[in-house]
Amino acid sequence: MITIYDLKPKFQNLLRPICCGLVNRGVTANQVTMSAIVLSAFGGLWIALSPDQNLPLFVLPIILFIRMALNAIDGMMAREFNQKSNLGAVLNELGDIIADALLYLPFVMIAGISAPLCTAVILLGIIVEMTGVISVQIGASRRYDGPFGKSDRAFAFGLLAVLLTLDLIPFAWIDYFFYLLIFLSCYTIMNRARRALDEAGPST
Fold first, then answer.
1. pLDDT digits (tens, 9 = 90+) for 166-175
2. What keywords are annotated for this sequence in UniProt (predicted)?
């Protein structure tokens, strides 16, 4: 199923010169991963401290794009420059979940946002990623199947931020927007689990 994650190879090709430059300067993949977490903490804190201001929401898509670039860069550094490590694997998986929580939880403080629905989307996002990780335990590859993975969540929250900033979405529609994200998240969980089970084959 099509997901924004499918664009990753082309995105990586654009970022490869930056990746090479960072490696030449002695920057490590783990440092890039931590930078993405710090950036997410900054963005989330800005929203939390100014939930009634438009500027943090307007800047959020830029923060999400930079975070996505950092996530792609740390992966390339690990694979292509022999920087893979157990610590890096842990930071990569935990970092994505932590960054999502830091960036998206402050949305519950924005007027008109349903805290239960927004929180449900974030929790389901964690389950989505854990489903992908658990697939490795049963002998399958790390699953990134869509339709609503990490990159798609970033796009959804970035879009919501822009719509709120420009006052282009009625508050009455926001709940339906979250209902859609909840449905897509649940479908993605089932899709990743099914694909993992199919790939792993019958248990012995």
1. 999 998 899 9
2. Membrane, Transferase, Transmembrane, Transmembrane helix
